Amino acid sequence: MQQKPILLIDDDQSLTELLSEFLAGEGINVEVCNDGLSGLQLARSQNYSLILLDVMIPGLTGFEVLQALGGAHHTPIIMLTAKGEEADRVLGLTLGADDYLPKPFNPDELLARIQAIFRRIDIIARQRAEQPISLNQLILTPAKRTVTFQDRHIDLTGTEFSMLQLLMQRADQVVSKESLSMNILNRRLQKFDRGIDMHISNIRRKLQHQGKQDCIATVRGVGYIFNSTDTDS
């Protein structure tokens, strides 16, 4: 199956050439941009299946590109961060990135991350026929990929939407971090990986911003639970 192109925003030309050639061999077309401003313009004007975004790029940093795209962008974004820079990874997820990969990385691991997102996109396409989920005035509509609370729209990234959907589908049941990682990110949970926690934190913040009190409880050492009991009355 022919894939839509992905956008790689990185100023390391040797890396971009290597990745372009490697991914082309896997049937993935890569469009390369070497600075943040041009990358932002392309991201806004073209329809990409995925964006690979380096943190340290000229013009606009990767974080500034994320901020300019806004938290409700629909194109999945994988941040490329310096190895060991946990603060960069946390900030990237907070600003709306779907995943991150520390440099240097194995191209096979990058390919696995990309394929996991493509599989999620296929699942999303199949969800179009699913019925909305309504719990205490919070309505999640798979067909439109929307979430509303008391008719107020809540902007979520693709990863955040999928995580909230899974939690609402299993309301009043504990969903482990491992389950969230496998079902949404399509990979096993890694030790000290805070990605799931950051996505849940983003969801909570966005729900609360629109007046929906905290309905996602933390089960320490296990995972999370969506409480169907109305906490807003």
TrEMBL record:
What PANTHER family does this protein's entry cite? REGULATOR OF RPOS (PTHR48111), TRANSCRIPTIONAL REGULATORY PROTEIN CPXR (PTHR48111:SF39)
UniProt key word ATP-binding: no
Q: Which residues carry this modification: 4-aspartylphosphate?
A: D54
Q: Which residues form the signal peptide?
A: none
Organism field: Thalassotalea mangrovi
The Gene Ontology CC terms held by the record are: cytosol; protein-DNA complex
Major subcellular site:
cytoplasm
Q: Which GO terms of type biological process are on file?
A: regulation of DNA-templated transcription
What is the protein name given in its UniProt record? Response regulator transcription factor
| Origin: domain of life | Bacteria
Q: Where is the Response regulatory domain?
A: 5-118
| DNA-binding region ranges | 130-228
Which GO molecular function annotations are given, in alphabetical order? Answer: phosphorelay response regulator activity; transcription cis-regulatory region binding
